[in-house]
Fold each of these.
Amino acid sequence: MDNFKLYKGKLTIALSGELDHATAPPLRNEIDILLNKESYGQVIFDMSDLRFMDSTGVGLILGRYKLLKNKNKLLLIKSPQDAVDKVLRVSGIYSIIPRI
Amino acid sequence: MNEVRNMDSITITLKAMPVNESFARSLIAAYASRENPTINVISDIKTAISEAVTNAIIHGYNGDQEQDIYIKASIKEKVLRVSVSDRGTGIPNIIEAMNDFYTTRPSEERSGLGFTIMGSFMDTLEVNSNLGEGTTITMTKKLA
Ligand SMILES: Nc1ncnc2c1ncn2[C@@H]1O[C@H](COP(=O)(O)OP(=O)(O)OP(=O)(O)O)[C@@H](O)[C@H]1O
Ligand SMILES: [Mg+2]
């Protein structure tokens, strides 16, 4: 994760590089620290700089979705590249997490 | 024998380390690129290889990084054929394991989509597994 910004209750977290089983653990940790620390109404995963993601990434996103759902917060996915978008589509994620 | 020897193929053995997931998918993508496939085809191959190698590491070997993963790839008539093998636990029930959302590791935020992705990103997917002996995933993809 390179950066995040909080604006008018929207917490945008930018994902970058490659998200797989090797890179997921530290990323998950960083995201969860942010989610616990900041106050926000909704969270946006900005995926425009994410080049690669596999099912491990789907697990990470669904895990954060569940966390946020328990807090009654919304999760959104923004601007995935084609390869990542295909993984998200095949996984059926868009039926619960809207893409903007 | 001659036919086998003349076939365009590569074989590699990798330790079951997470860092080898990106190495394996990049390597097979580089190998496939000799047929000038589209970016979408390369992306599909990378994702499928990543799934198979990750499964070998996590499920096959339960995270034991000293174990070996064997990858074979060949190209014949513009079709890539790639297999990923482990000599790990094996899969008790292959049909069940291949179901969408079936996972034996829900607590690790796994969602049981690896086989779903391999099956829909590649042209063919074959799973051979024997309990206590290991698992071989074989996939093909038309490159051009
Ligand atoms: N190489 C393997 N050795 C032993 N068991 C395996 C192997 N590959 C898959 N499995 C079994 O098949 C199940 C389904 O695999 P699949 O990749 O579809 O899902 P997952 O790995 O559990 O979750 P995800 O891939 O979505 O992170 C696994 O949970 C595991 O029980
Ligand atoms: Mg898997």
Amino acid sequence: MQYPEPIAKLIDSYMHLPGIGRKTAVRLAYFTVNMDKNDIANFAEALTETKDKLRYCSICGNLTDEDPCEICQDPTRNQSEILVVEQPKDIMVMERMKDYHGLYHVLGGVLSPMDGKGPDELNVRSLIKRLQANEAVNEVIIATNATPEGEATAMYLSKLIKPAGIKVTRLAHGLSVGSDIEYADEMTLFKAVQGRTEI
Amino acid sequence: MKISKLKLNHFRNYEHVDINFAPGVNVLLGNNAQGKTNLLESIYVLALTKSHRTNNNSDLIQWKHQNAQLKTLITKDSGQLNLELDLSKKGKRAKVNHIEQAKLSTYVGQLNVILFAPEDLSIVKGSPQVRRRFMDIEFGQMSNQYLYNTVQYQRVLKQRNKYLKLLQIKRASDLVYLDVLSDQLSAYGSEIIYQRLKLLKQLEHWSSAIHSTISQNQEQLTFKYVTALKQTQLHSVDSIYEGLKNAFQSERNREIRMGTTVLGPHRDDLKFQINHNDVQTFGSQGQQRTTALSVKLAEIDLMKAETGEYPVLLLDDVLSELDDNRQTHLLKAIQDKVQTFLTTTSLSGIARDLIHDPKVFQINDGSLRVD
Ligand SMILES: Nc1ncnc2c1ncn2[C@@H]1O[C@H](COP(=O)(O)OP(=O)(O)O)[C@@H](O)[C@H]1O
Ligand SMILES: [Mg+2]
Ligand SMILES: [Zn+2]
């Protein structure tokens, strides 16, 4: 027997999520079927809003529902420091640590020709423009992961920025240094990434 | 170190295996295509997490099954250790004493093996690739620093080659990024070359002593590491690093034109010389065999020196390939110290008097029986 179409579609959708295989998708789908009608409506709305209401901040590249984002608009933040991260979610990690009060810049990944990511595919130009337009910045802290690609990206940015007389520092908050990622299977990697965000 | 127990589930043509081995010589006896090499392969895979004869994990899983499990209990001077490897189509998981290891470099090196098969005679005759692979596998077992550097190097090399391709077809133009990749490759590459030189020096020392005995002091075996760098650039990690960096600078146009990385440890080679003549070009078949045997036997001593333990020796159909003199040297070298697994289709071509207390296993269509 086949799954009724709505359930089949739901299973298929869940399987698009990272770390979720067929078995888990089936379990989640049947769980969803039994959810309260209100909860379902909220769930569906939350999903649609991710596309309808979220956009990237035109200054820093963060995910936001208003442009510029809350952080870029906040005059009490230290305007002389920019912390460069790979992904918007890295900003949340830093913010939870409550240690840093400067500004951010989201690259949207790391340099990786194998994955089709060169300097033009990352938010590098926008960072340089931002530095040129903003005299107040005197330190750029690079917080890409401690993978070879993260390191190369940090070195690259430092080569571009340093000649302008701006201090460039490196913050290692990534995975264990140079982990052999191709060895870890999907699940282990997923756990490692999760574990990292809690440090 | 010794392999005390081996358990297999759905590995190659073995449904289930649960067996104890002798600390000395274990003979795996059976007709062709019964599973002798498969059993050696299971030990090799437990040591290195990959096979010597396939790059595809799925080949190792018994047909029509989803997973293979390999477990072993090894006994070292420092105590006993459980190693476990789970292979599936998706990947592999490795455990040391039941704890999952996220990094290759914390697993590999626990169990050290040396495999000697007829095709290993090609370390002298074969392509440079064969000798680089030989260095990477053996040195990677002895030093997890070496293993770590080779894994990182390969990863950066792939990125750099891809980027050079993009520069070649003018889909990229940023040379600052190329410089960064060159620096990174030089950093990992210099560590690799430095460690190779250091370990080769020791391997050469042991090999030439063994070679000299086998050849009754007639022949002196020496090694030569072949690299794009000059001899004067090889004395320290820093000088190698500078050497590689400068070489990448001066080869820049050629590399972009060719769309690939033209120098570095992945292009280096190792030459064997007897009385200063290149064995590959000028050596007789006998000299080539003696060289291969000397190098393999020297690895046993080198591993002992580097790790404090003798490795486990896996001899796949190789004993019957050697004449009496070479067989005698091999068997004397391992006697009473190196646990050995040897496969053969018959006991007749083997100098049995030199093997103390062998434990003989009959292998028949994926089943193992103590003789
Ligand atoms: N993944 C696999 N599942 C089941 N059988 C396999 C698998 N891979 C190889 N075999 C079988 O193993 C046998 C070869 O075993 P091998 O150990 O190489 O033989 P030998 O005893 O000659 O060394 C062949 O019969 C082959 O069909
Ligand atoms: Mg065989
Ligand atoms: Zn912003």
